[in-house]
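WARN no homologs supplied; continuing
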Amino acid sequence: MKHFFISVLLLIISKVSFSQTKQDTLSIKQAALDYIESQHQPNPSRMERALHPRMVKRTFWKDKATNKDYVRETSTESMILLAESYNVKGDKFPANPRKEIKLLDISERTASIKLIADEWIGYMHLVKLNGAWKIINVLWQYNDVKQH
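OK structure emitted
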């Protein structure tokens, strides 16, 4: 019986020491907010802060000429440029844009989240490197898939 309690205690201690912290949860949410809000109010620095330099953003698209689906990819560099120029006139989003973040899974150094914005959803993978959470993958789609 003594060995059983020691085993349970060690299991609890290992779970506590290797699980995410409240700060991790806040940092993951902040990375997602930096990503979306840098597009609401053009801010390339916030976008750069949110993304890993090798981030890849993907979606499916339809080629109008062939009517075939394919995968489109966007890089970190393109997203930083987008954050600088996409909404300069302030006409791309509603006055109070939707930005709902659902934490799907958090481990010690990896996380999966779902970002629900106005016209699209994005599934994101984040990685914790050198103490900072960065978005490394994004898979997104419009709510109305006919927009692709």
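The two ends are 61 Å apart (CA to CA).
OK
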